[in-house]
Amino acid sequence: MKTRLKRLFRLISDQAGPTAVEYAVMIMLVILVCLTGITAIGQLTATRFEQSSTSIQDAIDAQP
């Protein structure tokens, strides 16, 4: 019985489990921020390419 209590107290006082969970949560947040940034930059780039394409096509069409 004493060994079981000792194991239980050791398990409760062990910080390795919560630390791993905290690191996993931090990594997930970093990945979420990166994906959000990449998506925003991708949409901005696509818009700029569309504007450039439209401008080039308009310039070609305007030539005599």
3D architecture notes:
The chain has 64 residues and is an all-alpha fold. The chain has two helices and no strands.
The major beta sheet can be summarized as:
none
Q: Which whole number gives the mean pLDDT?
A: 87
Head-to-tail CA distance between termini: 96 Å
> Please, how many helices?
2
Shape: rod-shaped
Gist of the model:
By secondary structure, the chain is an all-alpha fold.
Main attributes?
2 helices, mainly alpha, 64 residues
Task: Set out the fold topology.
Elements: H1 2-13, H2 16-62
